[in-house]
Every structure is written in C-alpha cells, then in structure tokens.
Model the fold of this input.
Amino acid sequence: MQVLDHEPQSWFLFEADGELYLDANCNHGAFGYSFMIRLTTAEARKYRDEGRGYLSWLAEDIHNSAPILSASSSPYRTRKATKEEEADASTALAAWQAERIRSLKLGA
Done:
C-alpha cells in the first residue's frame, strides 16, 4: 500500500494492488477518528473525472454520516476497511511521513 495524495486535516488516499482507499478524518466535538473505505468502481471513476474535490466531498460525507456511531444509518458503516488494510495504510503512512521529513532535512 502507498500514499497517493492527501488533504491536510481531511483525508488520505491510498492505493494497493490497483484498489483505491480513502481514509477520512472525522471529528465530532472532542472526539476524532479516521474511517477508511475502499472506493467502489463508481467512486474511483468519479475521482478520476472530478479530481481531489470529489475526495474532499466524499470525506465530508463520511464525516457527516458518523459511521462509527451505533445508531448511525451511514451507508459507509458496512464498508469499513479491514484491520489488515488499516494496518497496511498505517505502515504506508509512517513511511510516507518519514520520507517527507527526510526530504525537508535534505532541503534545509
């Protein structure tokens, strides 16, 4: 898995084996969490057609639907990434962040 793009404080886009994953940053008051889904074929197509703005909209839609709440009727609830996919994303994100720090140090 690798980081393809991100919008600070909003989302990360990952890719693994040709599949796209969106990790949305959700905040409800003092409670914050991330919620990662695999994009459907239609969502991936919309992203390719509309770009980053679509991902920002999708991340906001995930956030607004509050998919982790037990009373939530969020359409994303059942699409939550597996623990393995989340772990792979976490590993990819750590490597991506380390590379960014390394690049900043070399540029200084």
